[in-house]
Amino acid sequence: MTTEIYRDAWGVPHLRADDARSLARLQGLVTARDRAWQLEVERHRARGSSASFLGPDALSWDLLVRRARLDDTARRCFDDLAGRDPETADWTRAYVDGVNEGLRETARAGHACGLAPEFARVGLAPGRWEPWTPLAVWLATHLLFAGFPAKLWREEAARHLGPEAVGLFATDGPGTSGSNGWLVSGDRTVTGQPVIAGDPHRFVEDPGVYQQIRLACDEFDVVGLAVPGVPGIAHFGHTGTVAWAITNAMADYQDLYRERLRRTGTGTGVEALGPDGCWRPVARHTELVRVAGEESVEVEVLETERGPVIAGGPEGLDGTPGSRDRAPGTPPTPGAPEAPGAHASPGTPPLAVSLRCPPRVTSDLGFQTLLPLLRARRVADVDRAFDQWVEPVNVVQAADTEGGLLHRVAGRVPRRATANGTRVVPAWEPGHEWTGWHETPRAGVTDGVAVMANQRGPAARLGVEFAAPHRADRIRTMLAGRRQWSASDMRAVHTDTRLASAEPLLERVSALDGLTGPAAALRERLLRWDRRMDADSEDAGRYAALRGAVVRRLAAHPAFAALTAPPAYPDVLLPWLALLPRIGFALEHLLRAEELYGVDRQRLVREALEETAGQPAAPWGDTHRLAPWRALPDPSYRGPALAGDHDCVLCTSSVPGATDLAARGPAARYVWDLARREDSLWVVPHGASGVPGHPHHHDQLPLWLEGELAPVVTDWAQLTKESDHG
C-alpha cells in the first residue's frame, strides 16, 4: 500500500494514499511530526492533566475538565460511533495509530534533532493516544465555545442590578466573538462560479489552531483547514467541485442548573433534589490531579440527572477547588441576596451548578459527518453530512460548480423553557427539562450574497446573545459596492478596519461643550477621524485611549460596585464574570441607554477626554499588538503591531479598558474559488510547523500581518516529495 507525503513552498503537507483509512493514518503521522508538542498539550488538556507539567496556572482548567467529565463523554461518544458508524470509528482509530507512530518517532529522535524542544523544557515524554482522544480534543476545544459562563454573568448582573441589566450588558453591543464568512454566487463573480471566503476568529495560538492540509486518495482529493488532533477537515474544505465553510451560529445549547445537594449515610453518598420533590442519588467518585511543583489536588466528581456538577458541591460553591473563596469574615454586599453558594436559610442545602450539553446527553458528537464531507461532490452531499452534526452549532455556507448554494445552521439545540437560555435555572423546579431538538434553520442567498458574522442571522431563534451587526453590515456594504468579484479581490474585505461601533462614544464627544486647549483639539481630531483602526493611525490610537479611559471610569462607578468582587466560581470561568471587560464589550449599549443607574455619562466622557488629551499620542499599533496563547509563555515576547479592532471586519480583539494587546484574531483566512481550485487562497497566523526554529514555524506571519494570502497549490508536480510509506 502506497502513501506519499508532499510539501508546498510553505511546508503545507499534501498527503496521498490508496484509501481513506491509510490516508487517516498518514494524516495522524504527519500531524504528530509537525505538531507533537501541540498534540500532547491538547491531549492533556482534554484529560484534565495539563497541570502535571504546566503547573498551578493550569489547575483550574484541569479541575473543570475532570468535573465536566470530558474524557468519559468522549469515550461514550466513541463507543456510540463504533456502533452506529463502524467505518468512521475505524478511520478515527487509523488517525490515532498515525499520531502514536509520529509521537514514538519524536521520542526516539529525542531533542538532539531539535524536535519539540518544549518536551525537554518541562520534562515531558510523549504519551499514548486512545481511539477516543480526538473526540476528547474536540470537546475540550469547544467546551467554552458556546459561552455557558455568560449565564453565570447574567445571574450576577440581574441579582445585583435587576433584570434589565441582562439586556443592557448583552454582547449585541460590541462583543468578543468574531468570525466572518461570506458567499458570493456565480452571477456576482468574474468567472461565473461562486467564491466562499472568510476568517474564523478565535484565540490566536502558537502553534495555530488550524492546520493547512491536503488529503487525497482514490475516493477524494480535498484541501482545507484541519484541527490538529482531529481527523479529516471539519470546518473549511474544498473538494474541487464543492466547498464549504462555517461560522459560529451563536446558538444556545448548553444549560446550567442550580442544584441542591446533600450528603448521605457516612458522607460518601450524595443526593440531589429533583423537580418531583424527591432526593435522588448522585454519581460520585474522586480523582487526583497532579500539579507540577505542588501537592496533588483531590477533586470530587459529581453528576446529577441533569449533568456533571462543574462548580460547588454539597458544601456549596465556596467549597469548589480552584475557586476564589470569600475571605473569612467578609460580609456579602449590603442589601443584596447571599451568593448562590450560600445557605438561603437554616436547613436549606447549599447550592452547586451542573452543566447539561448534547454530547453528554446523547453520547453523540457528530463525527459521522467527517468522512461524508471528504467524499462530498455537490452541495446536497455537504447538506446531508451536516444533518448529522452536533457540536458546536455552526452556520454552514457551501457552493458547488453546478450552481448549488447552501446557507444553513448545523448542530443540535435542545427544546426547553426560555429561562434555560438566559439564566441558571433551579433543578428542583419542574419545567426546565429538555423536550426534544430544534429543526436547524436555513437561509437564502439574497442578491447573490450570503453573509454571516455571528450576528442575529439564521440562528436568531436558537440563541440569546449575538455579535453586533457591524461586521456583517460592513461586509454586505462592501460586497454591494462591486458587481463582480474575484478570489484575489477578497483581501480588501478581509482587511477592512472601519469601526462602526465608535459612533456612540463619538456622539457623546460631539455633545461636549466648553472644552479648551488640548481637550478641545482632541475633540475636533476625533470628530474628523475616518473611523479606521489602522495600525499606523494616531487618531485610532487616541480613540482607543479615550475608550479605555471611559470604560475604566464606568467600571469604577459606585453603581457597579457590587459586581467588582469575583464570585466563588472556578478561576477558569472568571473571565466571563469580570466587570471591566463586560463594560468594555457592552459600551455601545451603556452609552446609548436612556438611563444608566444614575451615572452621569457626559461627565465621565469629559473627564476621560481631558485625561486622554494630556497623554502623548501614539499610533494604534504601538499598543495594539499580537499576544498569542502559548502553553509555555515567553515573557520576553513582544508581538507585532496589528490593525483592526473587535467590531472591524479585521477583528483583532483586545479588552477595552484593560489592555490593547490582542489575544483573539483571524486564526486563518481562506478564499475558496469554485472556478479553479488552484486559484483559491489561504493563510494562517504563524506557519505549518509547530517546531520552534523550523523554517516553516512562522514564515506565514508576514503575509498574515499584511492581509496577504498564499496560493493553494493543487498540481502535484509543483510540490516536493518528502518520503514514501508503504
Write a structural description:
31% of the residues lie in helices and 18% in strands. It has a 9-stranded mixed beta sheet, with helices on one face. Strands 20-3-4-23-24-25 form a 6-stranded antiparallel beta sheet, covered by helices on one side. Strands 10, 11, 12, 15, 16 and 19 form a 6-stranded mixed beta sheet that branches. The longest helix has 28 residues. The radius of gyration is 26 Å and the shape is globular. The protein starts with a strand and ends with a strand. The relative contact order is 0.16.
Q: Please state the average pLDDT score.
A: 92
Alpha carbon gyration radius: 26 Å
Across the major sheet, the strand order is: 18-17-9-8-7-6-2-1-26
Question: What is the strand tally?
Answer: 26
Global structural class: alpha+beta
State the assembly state of the protein chains: single chain
Helix content: 25-40%
Distance separating the two termini: 5 Å
Percentage of β-strand residues: 15-25%
Number of helix segments?
23
How does the major sheet shape up?
Answer: 9 strands, mixed
Low-confidence stretches: 172-176, 323-348
Shape: globular
Secondary-structure map with pairings?
Blueprint: E1 3-7, E2 13-17, H1 20-47, H2 51-54, H3 59-68, H4 70-84, H5 86-109, H6 117-122, H7 133-142, H8 149-161, H9 164-168, E3 180-184, E4 195-199, E5 201-203, E6 211-216, E7 221-226, E8 236-238, E9 242-248, E10 255-264, E11 269-273, E12 279-281, E13 283-289, E14 297-303, E15 309-312, E16 351-356, H10 358-362, H11 370-374, H12 379-386, E17 394-400, E18 405-410, H13 418-422, E19 425-426, E20 449-452, H14 470-480, H15 491-494, H16 503-510, H17 517-528, H18 538-555, H19 579-585, H20 587-592, H21 601-613, H22 620-623, E21 653-655, E22 659-666, E23 669-673, E24 681-683, H23 701-706, E25 710-711, E26 720-725
Parallel strand pairs: 2-6, 10-19
Antiparallel strand pairs: 1-2, 1-26, 3-4, 3-20, 4-23, 5-22, 6-7, 7-8, 8-9, 9-17, 10-11, 10-16, 11-12, 13-14, 15-16, 17-18, 21-22, 23-24, 24-25
Helix pairs in contact: 1-5, 1-7, 4-5, 4-7, 17-21, 18-19, 18-21
